[in-house]
Amino acid sequence: MSQWVIKGLRTGIKSTRYPRTIETAPGMSPGLPVATRMSPDMAQMMVTRCPTSALEPAQAGVDVNLRRCIHCFRCARGTDSPMEWERERDFECAGVTPNSNDHDRRFGPAFSRSIHILVVDAGDCGACLNEVKQLNNPYYNMHRLGFFLTPTPRHADLLLVVGALTEHMRLPLRKAYDAMPTPKRVVAVGACALSGGIFGRSFMCAGGVGDFLPVDVEVPGNPPPPLAILHGLLVAAGRKPPALLYRRAEDSTEAPG
Amino acid sequence: MPPELLRVLEEAKARWTGKVRPSLNGGDAAACHLECETSELPAICNWLFAERECSFGGLIVEQGTPWQLRYVFYGQDSGWTHVVTYLHAGEERVPSVSRLIYAADWHEREAEDLFGLEFEGHPRLGDFVLHNDVWQEGVAPMRKGFDGSRPVTNREPDLNWKPRRIVEEAGAFGMPVGPVHSAAIAPVYFQLETVGEDVIRAQPRLFYAYRGLEKIAEGRQADDALLIAERISGTSAFAHSLGLCQGVEGLCQVEVPERASWLRVFLAEFERLRHHVAAIAGICESTGLAVSAAQAAILEEELLRISGSLTGHRYLFGMNVFGGLATDLDDAVCRRAAVQIAQVSDKLAVLQGMLSTSSSFLDRLEDVGKVSVSNARDFGLVGPIARASGLSRDLRKVAPYCGYDRVEFEVPQESEGDGYARLRLFFREAEQSARIISEIVQRIPAGRFRTPETALRPGAALGWVEAPGGAALHWIRLGEGGVVERYRIVTPSFANWHGFRLAAENFAFQDFPIILASFALSVHENDR
Ligand code: SF4
């Protein structure tokens, strides 16, 4: 068995240094569309390309509602004037909802380096779940930041939900949430959990978990890369400031293109 | 046109003179169609399955006047055979073929549940896709009249529903596991039935992640169905979008440029490699050998990052479009990716070497979760799981698409059918995929990455693909204006979950996670 010890030692430390320094490894995040100033005609053309209405026409150009973006790249490919694409620090994109101001839902100082997480898949495609799994990968190793998966809701401080919430998962999800002690917070991960994504609202899908459970932190993406989920956890723990999920063209600094 | 296919046609004609109407369609999607009365259905299906040794691909139900039921088979060298039967108004019953072809069992149960058709003589129907503790009987969401766009409000769920117990010995009890699990695990419920130390049976209850994809695709534009196809199973997104693309491209006779075909093979094999590495990581983790699990997990993340740099998306979403790819990949970048992939493959070989000499690891896998070749065949298992039991049928070889017939590769096979055989198979297939990538990256021709215009036309066609988990079928019917009228998705996980219980009989409690991991099943792909 000693071969494994040696192998482990030889591998060295793979973990990202985020959040101490920003991570820039290629391929660890798909980036995000940027709200861009443009002419109304162009804006209209862009908006019709988007299958989930993540792009909205505005006075100044195109606004981006990250909660709806499913990373289909239709606004970035196959057109002569693609949307601007954010590639740096883009994964720091988790936002908060008004619930998170609720005093009862705040974590006290005892939680600062130890938060236990229950993961519930409420009906996704498996990609979000796989990215959540990567958080235990040596590359991300969330333990070093004091985040641990827990097998039981009774020990969970934080409920991490992926998926569009199917009819069949309503009851199990409700039971899990109710069994958690307070204070508790909910982090919804992925476009499907935020808005239903491509599945939308239907006879089977609730179009996200927000109407069903009080969500505190929302992590956009389809799927959000592991670092975005990590950012969401840090936001929930009060250790990182939240980002804006609705981004306005008028706030963009780009010159009109 | 495979000569064997003509033989199927001739023999069917001779055997069922006047009772079947055989026809052929040529081209790439060469298939033999046997139209028959419902009364002849079981005999014809059984002849194909038992005598001609065809695999059962799937059942495709289409509501219309009349209803159309299509049983798809494929053989080692006879290509595709569709047995088609029609139901006329008011007769919503058809004889079950499940008693003869057990592989069709879940297909019939699904059709009964979602379309409300009756399968006479089926051994067990009832709680399946639609859970009886959530839905009342008689809801048939796949029917045309059912509005899938809004929630069903008037529901009378069966609150006393309990999973059916199979073991009836004194002292037997059922241990529930799931659908919320102790780690990041997909929603599935298991009833482990035990009389003490050992588990006698493990029955999965699936479809917690049923998103009704076939239903919500209806009425949408074909290219939106492509977004749905990618999200059947996020970890096999490229394969499924390729399956749908090939269906639509076949239907609309779209010529896919050479360059796009080669790049598709590149990406499909890349996805297979990553899928298998994740499967290996899962097996290592289930045995508790932490360093090996971490090593495999590192390789998975490295592959995800290579995907991210190469295509912009870690799971290859948004790459396939009708007629080719959404964006071109730079040749130099592809070659660089191929070098990185080869490095991962080398590290994988080192890992395999180390695992094969770790006796405590092997002890946990050997003889665990055995599936015999005859069981694999009866249950219609597919992909690596079937090949680990000695049943080797790979759509890349038996019905080549995308130019796979120009690529040299081997379809590995093992015979023991236990956990260790499945692990070895994942390693060997991963190695083959890495080889294909390094071979073809030198041969990707210059040219267009997409046909400029794809004119969608009404009609129906079958697309198929050997997804990382095994054979996947995509039946697409388009109406006027490129609107989806029917989209039937048959996935490898659906076939293999059906057979999972073969491997989960009479085992020790602590082996359960290992058996499960060695199947590398996707709940999402099964549930759709
Ligand atoms: S990438 Fe996002 S914003 Fe752009 S078209 Fe797709 S869903 Fe819309």
Question: What this model shows, in words?
Answer:
- Chain A has 257 residues and is of the alpha/beta class.
- Chain A has helices spanning 2-11, 40-49, 127-134, 170-179, 191-195, 226-236, and strands at 32-33, 36-37, 55-57, 61-65, 85-86, 95-96, 115-121, 147-149, 158-162, 185-189, 217-219, 246-247.
- Chain A has 2 domains: 32-86, Alpha-Beta Plaits; 95-236, Rossmann fold.
- With 528 residues, chain B is an alpha+beta fold.
- Chain B has 2 domains: 3-120, 2-Layer Sandwich (Beta Polymerase, domain 2), CATH 3.30.460.80; 213-526, Cytochrome-c3 Hydrogenase, chain B.
- In chain B, helix 3 links the parallel strand 6 and strand 7 (118-120).
- The chains are: A alpha/beta (257), B alpha+beta (528).
- Chains A and B meet through helix 1, strand 7, helix 3 and helix 4 of A and helix 4, helix 5, helix 8 and helix 17 of B.
- The complex binds iron/sulfur cluster (SF4).
- Residues 33, 49-50, 52, 54-55, 69-75 of chain A line the site of iron/sulfur cluster.
- Iron/sulfur cluster is lined by residues 33, 49-50, 52, 54-55, 69-75 of chain A.
Summarize the structure.
With 257 residues, chain A is of the alpha/beta class. Chain A has six helices and twelve strands. Chain A is globular.
Share of residues in strands of chain B: 15-25%
Question: If you average the pLDDT of chain B, what whole number results?
Answer: 87
User: Could you name the CATH homologous superfamily of the largest domain in chain B?
Assistant: Cytochrome-c3 Hydrogenase, chain B
**CATH architecture annotation name of the largest domain in chain B:** Orthogonal Bundle
Rg over alpha carbons of chain B: 23 Å
Gross geometry of chain A: globular
Any idea what the CATH architecture of the largest domain in chain A is? 3-Layer(aba) Sandwich
Oligomer: heterodimer
